[in-house]
Amino acid sequence: MKKIILSICVSLCLIACTDNALIKNKKNENNKISSPIKLKVGEGFVNPIGYYESKPRFSWQLPPASTQKQQTSYQIQVASSADFSKSSLIWDSGKVNSDDNAWVGYQGKALESRQRVYWRVRTWGQNQHVSNWSETQFIELGLLNNNDWQAKWVGHPDTNERYTNPSFNGMPAVDHILYRPQYLRTNFNLNKPIKKARLYVTAKGVFKPYINGSAISEDVMTPGWTPYHKRIETLTYDVSDYVTQGENAIAATLAEGWHTGRIFHPTQQEHVKPMRLLAQLEVTFKDGTQQVIATNNQWKSTNQGPIREAGNYDGETYDANFEMPNWNAASFDAKNWAKVYAEPIDPEVKLKPKRHSAPRATVTLPTVDIVSVKNGVAIFDMGQNMVGVPEITVPAKQGQTIKLRFSEALEQDKFYVKNLRSAKNIDLYTPKQDGEITYRPTFTFHGYRFVEISGYDTAFKPDLNWLTGKVIHSDFDVYDNFSSNHNKLNKLSSNVSWGLRGNFLDIPTDCPQRDERLGWTGDAQVFVSTSMYKADVYAFWAAWLESVREEQSIDGMIPKFVPFRPFLTDGTAAAWGDAATIVPWELYQYTGDINVLRENYNMMKRWLEYTEFHSFEHISNIGTYGDWLQPYSENGRAKGDTHPDLIATAYYARSVDIAAKTARLLGYKSDAQQYERLFNNIKIKFRDYFFDDNLNVVSTAIKTIKREKGKRLKQPKQSKITLKTTQTSYLLPLSFNLFNESEQQVAVKKLLAMLEQSDRHLRTGFLGTPMLYQVLQRYGHSDVMYDILLKETYPSWFYSINNGATTTWERWNSYSLTEGYNKANMNSLNHYAYGAVAQWFYNGMLGIQPTQPGFKTFKVEPQFTQRLNDLSGSVPTINGDIKASWSITNTQLTMRLFVPSNSQAELLLPQVTELKVMKNGKAISDLTALQPGEYQISGQVQLKRDVTNE
Question: 516, 546, 551, 861: which one is catalytic?
């Protein structure tokens, strides 16, 4: 009987417990407190192997479907094992009362080389309900210090020779064999069961690694381009699945790249920089022991492989007669190869993990047309100006070299390569037998739309399937986040994205096709903000800024391009060197990550010291490339008509203003006060020096003659200069807040008058053009900006599209379908600078602008027009995508807005009457603090009269 009663009691308890659990689960289900999602570290890394930061920053998002729309607290745990047992915990933040969900700094003991840790996060919402823990993520560090390396730099022994050949223009002549790509390898034996293996590797030059005959990565042109005399990036690969118990082989090919190959115009290679490989394979066995296989003087090398030549500008030469089957496999006999030359690691050159993703082929483009076939020469059209390499599958004849040439555009049916200047841009393939061959270059890249193929077996008719294009850029996501009912506007958005792809190959370059491809700092600072709206490129920029800091000279000068080669040019330029302040500031505005300001604040200060030294009474005479490539400039000068001192002084003020705000944010009160005073002094001087009482640009001014380098003049020499009035001479001070508030409308009227004189066509170059949309929207003239943007005639964005552009151009008239290429020496059809206008798609047309860095709070104030309709787009942020769309039928507005979790929006629609804002079927009256969720908006739009486009 007792057993029965006991059994009944147990059953009742179980039922009660089950009911309580169901009630609790039902409550959790109703609350939908989902786990945080999209966990990242640093500038956006997910489960990184070979990470660079010993004290990482953590970011996450609240899931859109969760009822937790705002975060009030968080807790982060970091552990040495994925079970987060008490003994494995390395750091526990505890419950932190904060709505921060991005760039949260790790506060534990600094992580070490090779260390793997696991992390997770949970959050609390408005009602103090806690979420479940997120999915577990990991971080594995690379080799952080030079003393972590046992390896030595190795290369073919011929590259250690001294050069005694006759000189050329004062430089020793170089035997091309010393720059022939190298093949390196060694065998090793693993005699125990394997737990894991990591390959740490880099090169002076570019490399491709193999283990047991297999390429271990799709990365290309690694390790990339940094100031090699100060820092070389290293890569880490998980090769656990490539090694096996028993005999193994590790191998690599090595070519010039940026380190050893020529840079810019000179065709003579730099003979003092031989190619080298550094590799360290670390194998951990299941019994806990380790084995290290490192590059040393026991490795073997040959330069008699099939890749005979390879360079960034000149292309690749491949001869199949030199192929070495299985050369990278364990079974290969390398007895005839030479022992490598080995040299120690230089302690003055830092070896540091790569802090952004390496380039790789991200898209494959098919051929869209065969333009012509004449006398064994076929011209293929990819339909898109792209950057990358071809992959060909063509019929070949033994010993008959197949030749590939590349061009951005044709002149009628003529294959045009003049704008490439000294860059050969030619790939050659010599087959060893008749039959179909497949080839894809390894150590080069080209900027092109058209490919000319000759040397194939003419018994066969060229076919579209002979050629595909492998699009190469640093491995980041490019967003498809804007569309409208206007085909040419959509094309412009696409062109900007393709220009970004083409010029973000390890560093931000000015062009990808001719003998330049440099990291010009001026181009970077005008486009950095736009690029963040178009692609996930924060890590890309943060990594490049490290190179900028390294290239800053002892006196604070920032070079014109980074990485810098001093034999190309010297000195700096205003607006170019100001990338030191502008790029970090714009990245902070978009991301909200104050670390980018901390990292670069000292560089900002030193740049301002340099600028101050090269100014007199607050007028900068630092020199500049001006409003580069302004159309209709006097005598066609590339620097434009805006006086260089006006530009230099405006940018001096801008950099000082940024430094003052940065100092405030970082808590450097005295610095902030100093820079605020300096900004006001420059502002006053700028206004009085360059403009008269009526705010006209003065016809003459007194110019201080530049001092001798490194010397101050007690009594500076002066001379009269003449200043021209340009659109940019008003755009810069309006954008940089250099006019008093009472004078701003006067300046705007003068700017508008100049725009009317040019029939609402721009007369701006690289510097002035990005200011147009900012200034015109700020002062209520977006209708004028629409007219400028939608122009069809020169100079305009649609002019290039009407002439076949699939990327943005260097010049407003780089090319014409009827006349061909502009005859200027510099003429690229893939330059991103003028693509900066795409930021207005998001800030202006859709009206999404941050009111707090990182878009934690933002305003939405669309610039409506009758000229466009059905606009939609999104802005990716630290909290998720902000989404907006609108269309107008007659005067009826239909609009949608999505505010991501942990964010807040203000809706500004001054042009709309009979406004109705709905969320979840309920009317919303307070538009100053819209909470997360989706809103439906309607009303009547009152628009200014639009000027009809020609």
Answer: 516
